[in-house]
Design goal:
By secondary structure, the chain is of the alpha/beta class. The protein has helices at 37-52, 70-78, 97-111, 130-138, 194-202, 247-262; strands at 2-6, 9-13, 31-35, 58-64, 83-87, 115-119, 142-150, 157-163, 169-175, 179-182, 206-208. It has one domain (2-219): 3-Layer(aba) Sandwich (Rossmann fold), CATH 3.40.50.620. The protein is 28% helix and 23% strand. Helix 2 (70-78) packs across helix 5 (194-202). The protein is globular and about 75 Å long.
């Protein structure tokens, strides 16, 4: 059986940064890249299933992105993933989370995956939609914000608990194969050992292009995206003022500020 884990290399801002001239993103030189935190928990959950199974389980990590994504994929290999696949084609530039779900679904079909795990969301865009989009394109059942999972490889069903709003939890039985988006705290991700890091450095990272997945340029990219960034900017900073004096003086000052704000 094969568990496919979708992972993403996310961007974080350096202390100093500059918005690109087109106003759509930050200049890449000011971005720091790392493996998405939620995906670390997804990988660990797949590894736990593999290690507790009596039957063979292959854990395959997949990411959509350019060459720099290899660094994050090697982190996954160092933690025990069996294989790593990076999907990229210049036509994919500008793809939104829904389109990335289409790409991941094509990889899952090609790999004949038995389950697909993804993080609930990414720390940069936080759309929480890639895993759900993948399930839709596969026409598989899905469950989001999974905080507990009981699953035996090859089983027709999995039992899981989901986090809901207001601190509630929901216990669910889901048909498999399915797509699960994994929440933080479901497990304790392992550290990569020195041996694992050395082995990961020698492992190949497979590359797939559109033609390998039966997709065309018309299926991906900004032209296919259902959402796009219109403008990125640093918001204007507000101002705060401490009102001192007696309670009566503070009230009088507050009334004055309100009247000024309202233009009275």
């Amino acid at each position: 059986m094969k568990i496919m884990v979708a992972v993403k290399q996310v961007a974080a801002l350096d202390e100093d940064f500059k918005i690109r001239d087109d106003g759509l993103d930050v200049e890449e030189d000011f971005l720091l890249y790392d493996l998405n935190e939620w995906d670390d928990f997804s990988l660990e959950e797949a590894m736990k299933i593999k290690e507790s199974s009596d039957s063979p389980v292959e854990v395959v990590v997949v990411s959509v992105g350019p060459d720099r994504v290899d660094e994050s994929l090697r982190k996954c290999l160092a933690k025990g993933a069996d294989r790593a696949i990076r999907v990229w084609d210049d036509a994919m530039e500008g793809s939104d989370s829904i389109t990335v779900g289409r790409i991941l679904a094509a990889v899952a079909k090609k790999e004949d995956a038995g389950m697909v795990f993804a993080g609930v969301q990414s720390s940069d865009d936080a759309n929480a939609s890639t895993g759900i989009s993948t399930a839709a394109h596969l026409d598989w059942p899905h469950a989001a914000v999974v905080a507990g999972l009981t699953y035996s490889p090859g089983s027709a069903k999995a039992v899981l608990s989901r986090e809901l709003e207001g601190g509630l939890q929901q216990n669910v039985e889901i048909a498999c194969p399915s797509v699960l988006t994994i929440q933080l705290g479901i497990n304790k991700p392992r550290y990569a050992s020195l041996r694992g890091i050395k082995q990961a450095a020698a492992k190949p990272i497979e590359s797939l292009a559109l033609s390998d997945l039966g997709l065309t340029a018309a299926d991906v990219g900004a032209g296919r995206a259902l959402s796009r960034v219109r403008r990125m900017y640093v918001p204007a900073k507000g101002r705060a003022e401490m009102i001192e004096g007696t309670p009566a003086a503070q009230v009088a000052k507050l009334v004055e500020i309100i009247k000024e704000f309202r233009g009275a």
